[in-house]
Write a structure and sequence with these properties.
eight-stranded mixed beta sheet; alpha+beta; Glutaredoxin; 5 helices; two-stranded antiparallel ribbon
């Protein structure tokens, strides 16, 4: 009887110990990003990169991808976002060496392969610029949880688009969205320190 009793105590102690260990070692959750507990599936797609090569879902596998939707004629949000990403790129790579930054053009009419190549190289030669027709871009953007729209007519139109960054995990699924902050009279931008803090937590949770 004593053996059974002490055996029960030993098992209970082990269970409590395991639970306590998990509670104590529970990793912190992201504080600022919209983090998906169940990452969202990215549907198959095919874009073209600024080298003229096909870029598909396969290029997302085994990488942490920060995806930004913008265009080369964008007057403020795009250069600000890409410059900020360039400033913290080494920090992103320190957290996850398999990090990559993707710019998806929402202006295929004006953003040729050559124009995108020149534009993206200005910020960082490791960044990748992507393009496709609207028939591909619209569903791709919606799959990412974002939208865009052409504003105005003629050759000097603008494109309304989000300043958010979509984070895709190495399994090729949407893990989080980093949303911008905006003060009155300023360009919407994502706080770099908050982005890096949450990025580190999300990578650790993966």
């Amino acid at each position: 009887m004593n053996k059974i009793f002490f055996g029960f105590i030993a098992i209970a102690a082990t269970v409590i110990g395991v639970i306590s260990f998990k509670v104590i070692t529970k990793l912190p959750s992201p504080e600022h990003a919209l983090y998906y507990q169940e990452s969202r599936v990215v549907k198959p797609f095919e874009l073209m990169d600024h080298h003229g090569q096909a870029f598909t879902k396969d290029q997302l596998n085994k990488k942490w991808s920060l995806v930004f939707f913008g265009y080369t004629s964008c007057p403020d949000i795009c250069p600000t976002t890409l410059q900020n990403l360039n400033f913290i790129y080494d920090d992103l790579k320190a957290i996850a060496p398999n990090s990559q930054v993707l710019l998806v053009s929402v202006d295929p009419q004006r953003d040729s392969q050559e124009k995108l190549a020149q534009y993206i190289a200005y910020f960082n030669r490791e960044f990748i610029a992507l393009r496709a027709g609207h028939e591909v871009l619209f569903p791709f953007a919606r799959n990412m949880g974002l939208m865009y729209a052409i504003s105005g007519e003629g050759d000097n139109y603008l494109v309304d688009h989000s300043a958010s960054l979509v984070l895709i995990n190495p399994a090729g699924k949407v893990a989080a969205i980093f949303k911008p902050e905006q003060a009155v009279g300023t360009v919407p931008s994502i706080d770099s320190d908050k982005l890096l803090s949450d990025y580190q937590k999300i990578v650790a949770l993966y």
